[in-house]
Design a protein that fits this description.
189 residues; alpha+beta; Phosphatase 2c, domain 1; five-stranded antiparallel beta sheet; 3 helices; 21% helix; binds manganese (II) ion
Length: 189
């Protein structure tokens, strides 16, 4: 697969409260997007703690990872975030999110994955993972609210596009200037 991540702090600050992560584990690929609440150093601490927790618990279920990450982030200001677990053999994606990060899958059509209310580190009532199949060449695009909520992907050539180039164009075209921003683009082989 191909993966690109790009993040940009508000006002080019030295700290960025948005963070991405990705890991290959056996036949699985795990992707995450995290938005530490607010911005600045406190947001960066929360986001980095979340990514580290996820990295250390890749074998667990999404329910377990979110519950553990919620406990881990209690001592921070908290975060929003989404995690996608892709089974590369079967072409199956399982996703869950808490708060206002976004995830879009582009197969033959575009599908917006859902997120539940709450804060990682501040609690949430429910987590509802979704499972969808993704074909060869499918894109998974995850981004924080430093990017417009609705991005028009139809203006890009999504079949030919390079993941790094697409991440750059999304930040350039849809950046919201008042907040940190991060985008992760995954393309299945
Ligand atoms: Mn944000």
């Amino acid at each position: 697969m191909q993966i690109a991540t790009l993040k940009q702090a508000v006002n080019n600050a030295p700290y960025c409260g948005d963070e991405c992560g990705y890991w290959e584990k056996g036949t699985k690929t795990v992707l995450c997007i995290i938005d530490g609440l607010g911005h600045g150093k406190g947001a960066e601490i929360a986001a980095q703690a979340a990514v580290k927790y996820i990295a250390d618990h890749l074998s667990e279920s999404l329910q377990e990872i979110f519950a553990g990450c919620d406990r881990e982030l209690r001592k921070t200001r908290g975060a929003a975030g989404g995690i996608a677990v892709i089974d590369e053999e079967n072409g199956e994606l399982r996703y869950a999110g808490i708060g206002n990060t976004r995830a879009v899958v582009v197969n033959s059509e575009t599908f917006h994955l859902g997120s539940d209310y709450g804060t990682i580190g501040g609690g949430f009532k429910k987590l509802t993972p979704e499972t969808i199949s993704i074909g060869k060449g499918a894109l998974v695009i995850m981004f924080t609210d430093g990017v417009e909520e609705v991005i028009d992907l139809s203006r890009y050539d999504l079949i030919a596009v390079d993941v790094h180039k697409l991440a750059e164009m999304i930040i350039k075209d849809w950046r919201v200037e008042r907040d940190d921003a991060a985008v992760l683009v995954y393309k299945r082989r």
